[in-house]
């Protein structure tokens, strides 16, 4: 067996960084450090974290590496009144599933929630899971009377 000497090694395993045109993203004005979801027709949609953008070429470099952990804003919404707004919230805890949620009622620069359905009643794609950022990260994080948004460490599902 011959091993090709021209390869890359990473402590995270296989790193998956891809250049994605803005037009192929659910939210087509990405910003570095935000989450991104590639437009898909059915089923689980590929999502990751934007590393850099090139506004001149309208492309983003997105990290789709499974298991990578980044800090992202997570909304405590669990349910919506169909087509209207949030109507149920829950606490955020370690291991909670986090979804890419493109609902219009989400706060600015927040694309992740705990809701498996968006305001239209369509399934949200799994983005990842809440993990502790460090030993000082406390859980659970409060739901709030009308919802909260928390910065959480999220281990992304990736591609």
Structural description of this entry:
- The protein is an all-beta fold.
- It has two domains: 17-63; 69-156, no CATH class.
- Helix content is 0%, strand content 36%.
- The protein has no helices and eleven strands.
- The chain has strands at residues 17-21, 35-37, 47-54, 59-63, 69-75, 77-80, 86-89, 97-100, 112-113, 125-131, 149-156.
- It has a five-stranded mixed barrel with strand order 5-9-8-10-11. Strands 1-4-3-2 form a four-stranded antiparallel β-sheet, with no helix packed on it.
- Strand 6 and strand 7 form a beta hairpin.
- The relative contact order is 0.22.
- The mean pLDDT is 89.
Core attributes:
159 residues, mainly beta, 2 domains, 4-stranded antiparallel sheet, 5-stranded mixed β-barrel
Number of DSSP strands? 11
**Could you give the order of strands across the largest sheet?**
5-9-8-10-11
Bulk shape? globular
State the separation between the terminal residues, measured CA to CA: 29 Å
Which runs of at least 5 residues are low in confidence (pLDDT < 50)?
none
Supply the number of helical segments.
0
What structural class should be given to the helix and strand makeup? mainly beta
Radius of gyration: 17 Å
Largest sheet: 5 strands, mixed, barrel
Q: Average pLDDT value?
A: 89
């Amino acid at each position: 067996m011959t091993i090709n000497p021209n390869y890359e090694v990473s402590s995270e395993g296989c790193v998956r960084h891809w250049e994605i045109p803005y037009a192929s993203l659910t939210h087509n004005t990405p910003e570095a450090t935000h989450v991104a979801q590639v437009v898909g027709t059915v089923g689980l949609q590929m999502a990751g974290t934007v590393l850099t953008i090139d506004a001149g070429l309208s492309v983003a470099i997105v990290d789709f590496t499974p298991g990578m952990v980044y800090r992202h804003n997570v909304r405590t919404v669990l349910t919506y009144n169909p087509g209207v707004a949030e109507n149920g919230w829950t606490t955020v805890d370690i291991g909670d599933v986090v979804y890419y949620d493109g609902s219009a009622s989400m706060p600015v620069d927040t694309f992740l929630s705990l809701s498996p359905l968006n305001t239209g009643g369509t399934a949200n794609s799994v983005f990842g899971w809440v993990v502790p950022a460090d030993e000082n990260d406390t859980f659970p994080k409060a739901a709030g009377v009308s919802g909260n948004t928390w910065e959480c460490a999220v281990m992304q599902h990736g591609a």
